[in-house]
Design a protein that fits this description.
The structure holds two protein chains of two kinds. Among the domains of chain A are: 220 residues, 3-Layer(aba) Sandwich (Dimethylsulfoxide Reductase, domain 2); 56 residues, no CATH class; 158 residues, Barwin-like endoglucanases (Beta Barrel), CATH 2.40.40.20. The longest helix of chain A is centred in the N-terminal third of the chain and has 18 residues. In chain A, α11 packs across α12 and α21 packs antiparallel against α22. Helices cover 23% and strands 16% of the residues of chain A. The two termini of chain A are 31 Å apart. Chain A is α/β, with parallel strands linked by helices. In chain A, β32 and β33 form a beta hairpin. Chain A has a seven-stranded mixed β-sheet with strand order 5-4-24-23-22-6-7, with helices on one face. Chain A has a six-stranded mixed β-sheet with strand order 31-33-32-35-30-34. Chain B is α+β, with helices and mostly antiparallel strands. Chain B has one domain: Alpha-Beta Plaits (2-Layer Sandwich), CATH 3.30.70. Chain B is built from seven helices and eleven strands. In chain B, the strands form five sheets. Chain B has a three-stranded mixed β-sheet with strand order 10-1-11. In chain B, a hairpin with a 6-residue loop joins β8 and β9. The radius of gyration of chain B is 25 Å and the shape is elongated. The chains are: A alpha/beta, B alpha+beta. The interface between A and B is large, with 120 and 105 residues. β36 of chain A pairs antiparallel with β2 of chain B.
Chain lengths: 943, 255
């Protein structure tokens, strides 16, 4: 035997480690970027970081392939060919900013609303919204409307937050974890870490999802539910728990509006609203006195039983209305089994299991705490059942009420903000009343009168002109979707093209692939973007787009502002925006240029600083008219949102040096962050860790940390009054009422207690013909379009067959390698199929956004993503099928406007293999402003 | 022919928990990143932006469906890399001695300087765990991050394979199977850790923890701990009657 070779087992790892924040998805993990010779050599997770604690997903580790991607844009681009052709010339930044200023300045002076500024997957919304507000257009939003606004808004209206940025299961204490719908898309590493943690402890994982992949593959029990019926299943679980009295009555009485009295006078214009005292505070019956008392009175013990009789009318507490609703036998397991596809026995068993864990395995922490009524509690009592859900149950037209039902299920168990249940992440919880309302008052040459997006509390808050017409181009905050808190980006292009409600001049977008995977009805959207009017002018006259890569959308822009990659820029993940906190800690973070760009690109936010100054936008110029913020880093450091409050809460300047929370700007703040690994974290005091909305220790700490300026305890609202106010208007009360064609929809859907109704499009199509549900999900190893250009990730997911369940597979006699024609009421695609048994028997699905247009992303024209990858988007219309009333009905949730992606129904037929094994429809190749990539890669930057 | 050591001081390897692996491919890419930059030749990719990209990976995740007779189908995610076998056929088949098993820790490596790229070892491996790099024409395989686990330039807590350090679900564990008290030996004992294809006689060091029983049929259960729920009332008037009493008696009720 030869001697073993001598091996250096301690090679030098890197010259330097630079710690910043990942942006390969929206999870925002801390990363260690290992540098060699000034280049990125290796990326791993940061062990000190609160979000990922050292782990990192496939996307994060593949970030290095994002920096060297041939699809990276190189310089600003001006369109020289027809729109959509991809013919550009490179121009200087000066010229680019001159063009942008030339387009935007006259708009601002005359018709600010003619600018539609939508920022896609933006993580700097507190900044971009300030820019749009300064510009004065009401037409601003990011991508929440086509993502998960139902979950976010339902959470905030019901209890002051939902999941991901808002809250998480109490992984350390929970004993049963229920996961509803596809959830691999947000909060990716923390959920995986949590599942690993509870599995190690032997806690039970229950998956409720038509598709058994990812997290559902490791679930101990799988419920392969019919898409769109999650709300019905949840209502049945609540029904069972009510029927058996398995409710945390003490929690419901003290910490929710179940104890608040409802005006039940049918003649009152306040019918169905809460009875209030002279200060406007909702009233409860105090069990100590049997009299009415404000909900938050010192020493008040709210009573769930007693009613209040006045002027011949009995007013009951919300809890009685909940009993009426949830005990309704239409929610009995045997009555929902057929629709949900889950047997009545299994539903009963699941309800019993939940009740057993919540009440028989309750946990107590020996921690004293004091609630806002001044009552001292000797222990923290926990119901160790926790839940998580994101897009799966959100992206339906019944998604808002389904999400409300899910939050209500947690609330009746007493499993929100208690040990073992769901916990909020500071600065949440924050009820809807603590958020701004939407604003839309346009004054030429002046800023908008307030923030664009917010939470409506009644008809007066809607964004409507006096004549009832929409203020916003996306028709957010109208009677079609009165609670559209995130706007409706998916409607912008269609509405602007239709001139409904009005025409615009310039569409300005950032980081949103709206001509491809981020739009419904993709082929038609491409036509809308290139359509010309009778004068030969584009119907949407000007399009400015910012992206770092040669995405499908770039070809449709007249002016392209090339962004940097996430490793070359400053960013702040701010408490003013979408924070990265954990339940036990407040935290924020930065990105900083760990490498400098090797090309003529600029961070989009820095470009907005200069463009804002050129346009004289308030907040972007000094008193002498000069540019206020040199770049985004300058803004992050020096901007003050309120006294003592800026984009970053760490290392602010106090009287005795730097401090967390409040303080003056600190010129070295970014250096302090860099020295600390790119983030700031401060832990929640132990006595403030649970019961946050009700716990005075938390309230005091929250004020100190700058989340709000005075203590503001509140109670959860399973009964949502703003919904009832909209219903009252539909019933004929008040000044602002819905148009007649929407009255019925508002009455039926905007119920103040959770309800379930079938997805709206089901009523308009023949569900026996279109008898198959069709879904998409984003692979864990890829993040929408960004993954496909990534040389490593596209080897994991490079094609996306349509996965077909056994029943349909056998019915059509499919075999491996077959193709299918898939038809929806609005479109047809031809795609490869693959068999999958672990699937709801009436559901097909595919990976989202694998399919690519030829010419985009610097891929070869025969790249597998362009031949065997496809989009389901072609089958999903942004409008519901015509009702013959001349109206354009959006394919969205009628409450929030969330895009109803997952309501899709199709029919499937076996078909011959298309010529060239090419998915259909096939869009012609775009010309690309970047060269193709190299034929081989061997990316070793060190010696 | 190359000989194997008669015994090794340690038996370093991985335990992979199939009950917890969600199939996220984090380990695949972390491995690709570390081993592209470190040990030997970089892991190359052919046609990386073309029709059918194909690169060298030392660790891949496969997914298999299982259809039990009386339960819903299941999907198992199965990460696979070199198992560092005690009787490694890839070593004994090597004509140049480039493939070898380390005496001190049992790690199976390829000395790339001696590798002629003949590919015999890949044929001999029953697991398909070795991949020929198409650019360098040398055989690549899992090194168990031999350049991390002893690396004094890394903080001690990071001296573990890249795939283990990065695994979000904590499904991968690294340790010494020669030590019965090590974390990996204990996990294997507690959870019934299994050899992959033991019939091949390779005596793999890496172990797999089987998935726990799923979707247990509950219909015949007489579970005294979690009986099906008894109704307190069937309609809301009766419910309010119950409520009166419940507020004294129920869990969480007023006392």
């Amino acid at each position: 035997m030869k001697d073993q070779p001598i091996l250096d087992t301690s090679p030098k790892v890197s010259d330097e480690v630079r710690k910043t924040t990942c942006y390969m998805c929206a999870c925002r993990c801390g990363i260690n970027v290992h540098m060699k010779d000034g280049k990125v050599a290796y990326i791993e997770g940061n062990k000190d970081h609160p979000v990922n604690q050292g782990v990192l997903c496939a996307k994060g580790s593949a970030g290095i392939m994002q920096v060297n991607a041939p699809s990276r844009l190189k310089a600003p681009l001006k369109r020289v060919g027809p729109r959509g052709s991809g013919e550009f010339e490179e121009i200087s930044w000066d010229e680019a900013l001159d063009i942008a200023t030339g387009l935007l300045k006259p708009i601002r002076e005359k018709h600010p609303e003619k600018l539609a500024f939508f920022t896609g997957r933006d993580q700097s919304q507190s900044f971009t919204s300030m820019w749009a507000q300064g510009f004065g257009t009401p037409n601003y939003a990011a991508h929440g409307g086509f993502c998960s606004v139902n979950m976010a808004a339902a959470g905030i209206y019901t209890m002051g937050g939902a999941f991901w940025e808002f809250g998480q299961p109490d992984w350390d204490h929970t004993k049963m974890f229920l996961l509803f719908g596809v959830a691999e898309d947000h909060d990716s590493n923390p959920i995986k870490m949590g599942i690993g943690k509870i599995k190690k402890r032997g806690a039970r994982v229950v998956g409720i999802n038509p598709i058994r992949t990812g997290y559902n593959a490791v679930a101990d029990d799988w419920f392969g539910i019919t898409p769109g019926t999650d709300g019905l299943l949840i209502m049945a679980l609540i029904h069972e728990l009510f029927k058996a009295g398995k409710l945390d009555l003490d929690y419901l009485a003290r910490f929710t509006n179940a104890s608040c009295l409802v005006n039940e006078d049918p003649k009152s214009p306040q019918n169905g609203l809460l009875l209030r005292d002279e200060n406007g505070e909702p009233l409860v019956i105090d069990a100590n006195t049997g009299e009415r008392a404000p909900w938050n009175g010192k020493g008040v013990e709210p009573d769930l039983r007693q009613t209040y009789r006045h002027a011949g009318v009995t007013h009951r507490p919300v809890f009685h209305l909940m009993a009426d609703r949830f005990l309704d036998t239409k929610y009995a397991p045997e009555n929902v089994a057929d629709q949900t596809g889950i047997s009545a026995d299994r539903i009963r068993q699941l309800a019993a299991d939940i009740a057993h864990v919540a009440f028989d395995e309750a946990i107590e922490l020996d921690r004293e705490w004091t609630d806002f009524r001044g009552k001292k509690h000797s222990k923290m009592l926990g119901r160790p059942v926790s839940m998580h859900s994101m897009r799966g149950i959100s992206a339906h037209s019944n998604g808002f009420q389904t999400c409300r039902a899910l939050h209500t299920l947690q609330i009746i168990l007493g499993a929100v903000e208690t040990p073992g249940g769901m916990r909020f992440k500071p600065p949440y919880p924050k009820p809807a009343t603590a958020h701004p309302k939407p604003h839309g008052k346009v004054t030429p040459g002046q800023p908008l009168n307030g923030p664009h997006l917010g939470f409506t509390h009644g008809p007066e808050d809607l964004m409507l002109h006096e004549d009832g017409s929409p203020i916003r181009i996306d028709k957010a905050f109208t009677w079609e979707n009165p609670l559209s808190s995130h706007g409706m980006m998916h409607m912008v292009i269609a509405n602007a093209h239709a001139g409904d409600p009005y025409k615009i001049d310039t569409l300005f977008m950032y980081m949103a692939n709206m001509s491809w995977n981020s739009s419904m009805n993709t082929s038609a959207v491409m036509d809308m973007l290139t359509d010309k009017d009778e004068n030969g002018d584009y119907v949407i006259p000007n399009i400015i787009y910012s992206d770092a890569y040669s995405s499908e959308m770039v070809a449709f822009a007249d002016l392209v502002l090339p962004d940097t990659t996430y490793l070359e820029r400053h960013d702040c993940i701010s408490l003013l925006d979408r924070p990265i906190c954990e339940a036990d800690a407040v935290a924020d973070a930065i990105r900083w240029p760990v490498i400098e760009p090797d090309r003529d690109v600029r961070g989009f936010q820095s470009v907005l600083c200069e463009l804002g100054a050129r346009l004289d936008l308030p907040g972007f110029v000094n008193e002498d008219g000069s540019q206020k913020y040199a770049d985004y880093a300058d803004y992050i450091t020096n901007h003050m949102r309120r006294p003592g409050v800026g984009p970053l809460a760490g290392w602010r300047m106090g009287e005795n040096g730097t401090q967390g929370g409040r303080g003056e700007p600190n010129a070295s703040q970014l250096d302090n962050y860099i020295a600390n690994g790119g983030f700031w974290v401060e832990h929640v005091p132990e006595e403030a860790a649970y019961y946050k909305p009700f716990n005075m220790a938390y309230q005091d700490w929250a004020v100190k940390m700058s989340f709000y300026d005075s203590v503001q305890p509140y109670i959860f609202t399973p009964y949502v009054e703003p919904l009832r106010k909209m219903q009252l208007a539909a019933e004929g009360h008040g000044r602002v009422q819905p148009p007649d064609h929407l009255r019925q929809q508002v009455k039926e859907t905007m119920d103040p207690l959770p309800i379930w109704y079938a997805p709206l499009s089901d009523e308009m199509i023949d569900t026996t013909e279109f008898d198959v549900h069709a879904l998409t999900q984003r692979p864990m190893a890829m993040y929408h379009s960004w993954g496909t250009q990534n040389a490593w990730l596209r080897q994991i997911h490079g094609v996306n067959p349509l996965y077909v369940p056994t029943k349909i597979w056998e019915k059509h006699g499919f075999a491996d390698g077959d193709w299918a024609k898939v038809t929806s009421p609005s479109g047809v695609i031809t795609v490869p199929v693959a068999h999958m048994a672990a699937l709801n028997e009436n559901t097909v699905w595919t990976w989202n956004a694998i399919g690519k247009r030829k010419g985009a992303w610097a891929l070869d024209d025969d790249a597998q993503e362009t031949t065997k990858g496809f989009l389901l988007n072609h089958l999903i219309h942004e409008l519901l099928p015509e009702k013959g009333d001349g109206m354009r009905w959006s394919n969205s949730d009628p409450i929030t406007g969330q895009a109803a992606w997952f309501d899709l129904r199709v029919k499937i037929e076996k078909c011959v293999t298309p010529a060239g094994d090419q998915c259909q429809p096939e869009a012609p190749a775009q010309k690309a402003p970047v060269p193709k990539g190299p034929p081989t890669l061997a990316w070793k930057v060190g010696k | 022919m190359t000989t194997l050591p008669t015994s090794t001081d340690k038996k370093l390897g991985l335990v992979i928990d199939l009950d917890t692996c969600v199939g996220c491919h984090a380990c695949v890419i972390s491995c690709k990143g570390w081993n592209t930059e470190n040990y030997g030749a970089p892991l190359s990719d052919q046609d990386p932006y073309g029709a059918e990209p194909s690169g060298t990976f030392l660790n891949r995740v496969h997914s298999y469906e299982i259809q039990p007779e009386a339960a819903p189908a299941q999907l198992i995610h199965f990460p696979k890399s070199c198992l560092h076998c005690e009787d490694a056929p890839c070593v004994t088949v090597c004509p140049t001695g480039a493939s070898y098993k380390r005496v001190e820790d049992g790690i199976v490596l390829v000395n790339e300087q001696d590798c002629i790229g003949c590919g015999l070892c890949a044929w001999a491996c029953p697991y398909g765990a070795r991949e020929m790099d198409a650019t360098e024409k040398v055989m690549k395989k899992c090194t168990l991050c031999v350049d991390r686990i002893y690396n004094e330039n890394l903080p001690e807590e990071d001296r573990e394979p890249a795939c283990v350090r990065t695994c979000p679900a904590g499904a991968r564990h690294f340790g010494d199977f020669a030590d019965p008290d090590s974390n990996v030996s204990k996990l294997t004992a507690e959870r019934g850790g299994m050899d992959l294809m033991p019939e091949m006689g390779t005596k793999p060091v890496n172990k797999y923890l089987p998935p726990r029983l799923k979707d247990r049929d509950r219909s015949q259960d007489v579970d005294i701990l979690a009986p099906l729920l008894d109704p307190v009332a069937t309609e809301s008037t009766g419910f309010l009657g119950w409520l009166d009493k419940a507020l004294e008696n129920m869990p969480g009720g007023k006392t």
